[in-house]
Amino acid sequence: MALEWLKKDDKLKDHGLFDDSHFGKDAPTLVYEERPVLDEKGQAVPGICSAWIWLNNPSQYNSYNTEMVKGMVAGFQKASSDRRVVAAVLTAVGDKAFCSGGNTAEYASYYARRPNEYGEYMDLFNAMVDGILNCKKPVICRVNGMRVAGGQEMGMACDITVSSDMAIYGQAGPKHGSAPDGGATDFLPWFLSMEDAMFNCISCEPWSAYKMKSKGLITKAVPVLKKDGQWLRNPLVRTDYVDDGEIVYGEPVPSDKLAAAKALVAECKTDFELLDKEVNALIWKFTNLFPHCLIKSIDGIRGKKKFFWDQMKVPNRHWLAANMNHEAYLGFSAFDAKKATGKDVIDFVRYRQLVAEGHVFDEDFAEQVLAKPK
Q1: Cα-Cα-Cα-Cα dihedral sign, residues 287, 291, 297, 299
Q2: Domain residue limits at 250
Q3: What is the DSSP string of 186-230?
Q4: Residues facing 65 on adjacent strands
Q5: pLDDT of 357-374, one tens digit each?
Q6: What is this structure's pTM?
């Protein structure tokens, strides 16, 4: 050959930044798993795989603590740089929650009144969202249960969502002392109408998977309840469209039918067979596309989300840190003390009365708005 004099180093380089310590046996709250790619017949395809990143804190609704966030940064970088990986799947252990957001126990016990420390934490959180948005593989969010607060934010950073139809979606920040500035205020207006984005962001009202599907926030909602070998759609929500001229698709069933719906749910088994089938079908679809054309197309769409995320993530980081000396201190303290007090929020009316009186934000202020132990 004419270019034989050019020597080629054929030893492949490792572009990974992290070892496996973030998701090995010493870090059980974040699991990184390689799964085979399955063809249309369900047969494993040799030489390639998918990367499944599992949140593993089901006893606390898969809320993430500092170490889990670090693990997700490492996990997405690992998936991104692995030549064998076709797609990354972000999911969670259990059947109740995908993720309920940040770990409020850690927030209340460590980060409250330590704004510098929380700023450092937010740098990690931002790196996690960046890791999802910059992953050079398609990212599927496999939602096995509630996706709220920071869980909703990391989910919206993913490319495609396939959901259990029992899942609920929403934000919680204004109710518990924060603003959903980990992505919700940036991403929601891209997914929903401006008014739906506004209401969903500030109402702290949970919306069903079917409602989110009808509004375009997620790609698919599939049944996960099985009774006597038959699949049942979520009995807790309406799946018809019009009632007295109002669209009710995905809204809760009427209160007089709620008890019967809950009883029916209790008679069912949860089975994620259809959910996993949809995820595997997506991975197989991605497998049969040119990988560089695929990720260029994905990055082209991600760029619109990234534009507003990149504009606001730094100022939001500083505000969220400063807020740990203010409303977040009260909100997370109240939520963390709910077992002792029976109440997970502050006395909002008294809070507003104290503000109207020009009361200094001090220990006496906090004492007046936080619930007392029972």
Answers
A1: positive
A2: 228-270
A3: HHHHHHS-HHHHHHHHHH---EEHHHHHHHTS-SEEE--EEETTE
A4: none
A5: 999 999 999 999 999 998
A6: 0.92
Residue 168 CA from chain centroid, whole number? 11
Is 1's pLDDT higher than 60? no
Alpha carbon distance 140, 284 (integer Å): 12
Tell whether 6 is covered by a domain.
no
Mean pLDDT of the chain: 93
Distance CA 372, CA 337 (A): 9
**Residues 246 and 361 both lie in one domain:** no
Let me know whether 45 and 85 are in one domain: yes
Quote the CA–CA distance of 151 and 182 in Å, as a whole number.
Answer: 10
Q: Position of tokens 């096995």?
A: 144
Residue 150 CA to residue 170 CA, distance in Å, equals 9
Whether residue 51 is found in the same domain as residue 163: yes
pLDDT digits (tens, 9 = 90+) for 176-198: 999 999 999 999 999 999 999 99
pLDDT of residue 3: 65
Shared domain for 127 and 219, answered yes or no, is: yes
Tokens in use for 347? 């006395």
Name which residue leads in pLDDT, 16 or 27: 16
Query: Which pLDDT belongs to residue 259?
Result: 96
Q: Do 168 and 136 contact (CB within 8 A), yes or no?
A: no
Q: Are residues 238 and 143 in the same domain?
A: no
Q: What separation in angstroms does the CA of 115 have from each of 107, 176, 229, 239, 318? A: 11, 17, 53, 45, 9
Q: How many domains does the chain have?
A: 3
Pairing of strands 146-148, 97-99: parallel
Going by pLDDT thresholds of 50, 70 and 90, the confidence category of residue 27 is low
Say if residue 345's pLDDT is above 80.
yes
